[in-house]
Amino acid sequence: MTQVLTVVRQSGEATLTDFAPAKLPEGDVIASQATNQHQEAADVGASVGIWESTPGVFRRHLKNREFSHIISGWCTFTPDGGEPVELHPGDAVLFPADCQGVWDVKETLRKTYVLF
Fold first, then answer.
1. Where are the membrane-spanning stretches (predicted)?
2. Of 28, 44, 99, 111, which is most buried by a Cβ count within 10 Å?
3. Share of the chain above pLDDT 90, in %
4. pTM (2 decimals)?
């Protein structure tokens, strides 16, 4: 049986285009966001890619579980009913399914992600 790998390449240097405003902004500074290399791995029910956001505050609106590795920038994520967590380059984070909360991106944030 042949196995196919899903690979995100050069995540720190990849060019992201087509930035759009955050879908659920909070406050006056509206973050712009983009993805690159979004790939579906239907055989395992997951998708991977690169995501970047400029500074701003907005709600997390994904229902999926998500594993992310922070490449650059930094932010604070505050899960609803929980304590704020700072995320910096080199950090990895696992969001449980239906994790709601607020992103506060302090410095343009780039991460790789796996949604499953």
1. none
2. 111
3. 91
4. 0.93
